[in-house]
Amino acid sequence: KLGIENELFQSDNMAEAIQRLDEFDLVMSALNLNLTKDLEPYAADFKDWVNRGGGFCIFDACNGSFYQKFVEWLTDGVTMHPTGCNGFPDRVTNGWVYDTKPGHPLRNFPMKVDYECSQWHCLRKVEGWDIVSTCSGKMGFHPVTVVRNQGRGFVYVSSMQQRWRSVAADLRAYLACSR
Predict the structure, then answer these.
(1) ∠ CA(42), CA(152), CA(158), 5° rounding?
(2) d(CA 96, CA 18)
(3) 109: nearest Cα among 25, 159, 166, 27
(4) What DSSP line would sit under 75-135, residue for residue?
């Protein structure tokens, strides 16, 4: 719940959620929600909402088949590839997360995400996405959390579960600045 008022919608009542999108600042995907399958009929609605100033957040993004196609629909084909560390001898699995230097506002404003959490897979660095935090790989650092500004809103993707109150505070402040 991240310390903010929230409302839970299941994938079987997305039509109601779509009708009420403008009531919400942020939409946060639940763990293992298959965005590509469950939200495909609503991709254009979510895209319009993001462009008008909404923040769409995907947490625990370890399985690209669950979200990659949906992210492409949301961002006009800007891909987000998962598992950037796969195939490397020093593959990071459940490693520590590092801040970028300088630190990205989404980890520092108005609250510092000071719990160095572990993460599962990395994301490949892709043009058009700002890196918020990275893995701790030996062969270079790969994104763990990224954000893409779009219209007056943003799309946020992280392989971490994001269970800290500071994350919600930072997302809301970032959204206010984006608007």
Answers:
(1) 65
(2) 36
(3) 166
(4) TTT----B-TTTTSTT--SSEE-EE-SSPPGGGTSSS------EES--B---TT-EEEEE-
Distance (Å, rounded) from C-alpha 118 to C-alpha 60? 11
CA gap 114, 80 in Å, rounded: 26
Strand partners, 148: 155
pLDDT by residue (tens digit) across 50-85?
999 999 988 877 667 777 778 888 888 776 665 555
pTM of the model: 0.84
- Spatial separation of the C-alpha atoms in residues 52 and 62, rounded to whole Å: 28
Q: What's the angle, vertex CA 141, arms to CA 139 and CA 142, rounded to 5? A: 115
Task: Taking each helix axis as running N to C, give the angle between helix 64-74 and helix 43-52, from 0 to 180 degrees, rounded to the nearest 10.
Answer: 60
Closest CA to 79 of 87, 69, 88, 89: 69
